[in-house]
Amino acid sequence: MSVMSAVGGLKVGVDVVEQDQVVMISVAFLVILFSLQKYGTSKMGLVVGPALLIWFCCLAGIGIYNLIKYDSSVFRAFNPVHIYYFFKRNSINAWYALGGCILCATGSEALFADLCYFSVRSVQLTFVCLVLPCLMLGYMGQAAYLMENHADASQAFFSSVPGAAFWPVLFIANVAALIASRTMTTATFSCIKQSTALGCFPRLKIIHTSRKFMGQIYIPVLNWFLLAVCLVVVCSISSIDEIGNAYGMAELGVMMTTTILVTLIMLLIWQINIVIVIAFLVVFLGVELIFFSSVIASVGDGSWIILVFAVIMFGIMYIWNYGSKLRYETEVEQKLSMDLMRELGCNLGTIRAPGIGLLYNELVKGVPAIFGHFLTTLPAIHSMVIFVCIKYVPVPVVPQNERFLFRRVCTNSYHLFRCIARYGYKDARKENHQAFEQLLIESLEKFIRREAQERSLESDGNDDSDSEDFAGSRVVIGPNGSMYSMGVPLLSEYRDLNKPIMEMKTSSDHTNHHPFDASSDSSVSEAEQSLERELSFIHKAKESGVVYLLGHGDIRARKDSWFIKKLVINYFYAFLRKNCRRGIANLSVPQSHLMQVGMTYMV
């Protein structure tokens, strides 16, 4: 809408330009706009800042010029009694006009949607000291111009521009429109990223365009999808009024949703007096509902587009969240118990072949059910198995020496380990698999040496239950059970890993009958021999080769499930899961070292 409105100024400056030419030029501008999106906000800042400053100054200057030249009495509009007079004179038509009035205030919320790019204080100061006064002067200037030029109401702004300044203003208006459209696009990227993190949207490829700000991102698939939708809307609905109706419906939906959410925050988090909360809700939501009642009357004149789009997006988000939640809960319920692992014995009920198996899964606690599927499907399992779980932390780069967190699964003789591989949002996941394996083994060796060190300290009575060292990374357990490393709290899922490892290690030692006794030289010697044997075992397993075991868990509805559940899980969710970005898409794994096994959960 912004782009078409800006390009539509050509019809004022050039008489031969028709609406079809405006649509063609708008399409060209939109293609250029979305093609430049991948370069990030930081690289475009030198153009964005000065262009917007000039644009707002132009609005204010043109408004002041029209106020002086035509009619400065429009200042009387600040008197709210004129609202009553307006509705008294126009009755039902005044109510219909509310839908157009709301468009004067739209777009400003995009500033606050992009808080990942700017600080709160800078947004507040810019809006109050620059945006608001310039917009008010601009609108009052147009009103003053229309007092004497009623026929130019369809192109009030460009018609009110002085002749000598028309072409420069037209140029800067188009630049500002492209920038405003780009701001809305980046805000959409931020919303989709947050929805993905909450499990409410299928995974998409996200590119971080800045090492300094985590929120500056680019989503290629979404960018080209938005371009296609914009082109369809511009080409099929060339009327700016119908697009305006759809835009007004979307804006009022955002406003009402924001008011309701802020009300909940005031009650549950800020715990403000209930009387103040009710007054806030009645005033703001009441005004928004009045405007919404006007916009809803234009459903047949373009607003239906946004309603259809909202229903489709809600359906995608609900189905993805519902299916993902069912799949994760089923994986947690069906994970293998430690009692079963002990019954199987250290050979896991099968043959332990030389080598290391890296089993990738999403669980951070317990043995995933897909591992049991490996045991029942394959005649042999590797002599050492490491359950690898990849997690992202809110820092640009994770140092190599703090990449992995290890803990033991079962006793020493099982040679099973849990590994949390941590990556920052700017870390390149396309590393060489040999370098990755070497770093993994080195970190595992450090963990085993520290484990032996902690056993000896524990036997000396130097137990420290407040912190643990995992593979060279200092990890502190906070009072709320969160795990902290590098000064950054990790995901809440890590809470299950915060169980004191000393207890597990001690029980493992007793099971294997290798207690450490600092007062006994023979015990120390035996402990050192045990450590050397395990390190030697790891080196031999590494020499035999590393295999990447990738398990694909899927869900299907049971036969006795309702028809709606079967339709949602077996078709809609399956389609989304098949076409979304896999969680292991960034793994650089050679095909010769890859083994995949699928498993279906009945829900």
TrEMBL record:
Q: Where in the cell is it found?
A: Cell membrane; Membrane
- Keyword S-adenosyl-L-methionine assigned: no
Q: Where is the K+ potassium transporter integral membrane domain?
A: 1-339
What does the entry list under GO cellular component?
Answer: plant-type vacuole; plasma membrane; vacuolar membrane
Q: How does it sit in the membrane?
A: Multi-pass membrane protein
**Any GO molecular function:** potassium ion transmembrane transporter activity
Alphabetically list the UniProt keywords: Ion transport, Membrane, Potassium, Potassium transport, Transmembrane, Transmembrane helix, Transport
Q: Where is the K+ potassium transporter C-terminal domain?
A: 354-601
Sequence intervals crossing the membrane = 22-39, 46-68, 94-113, 125-145, 157-180, 217-240, 246-267, 274-296, 302-320
Q: Which domain of life is it from?
A: Eukaryota
Keyword Transport carried by entry: yes
Where does this protein chiefly localize?
membrane
Which InterPro entries does this chain map to? K+_transporter, K_trans_C, K_trans_N
The record describes the protein's role as: Potassium transporter.
Known NCBIfam families for this protein? Answer: kup
What the entry lists under PANTHER family is as follows: OSMOTIC STRESS POTASSIUM TRANSPORTER (PTHR30540), POTASSIUM TRANSPORTER 7 (PTHR30540:SF8)
- According to its UniProt record, which protein family does this protein belong to? Belongs to the HAK/KUP transporter (TC 2.A.72.3) family.
This chain belongs to the protein called: Potassium transporter
Name the species this protein comes from. Answer: Olimarabidopsis pumila
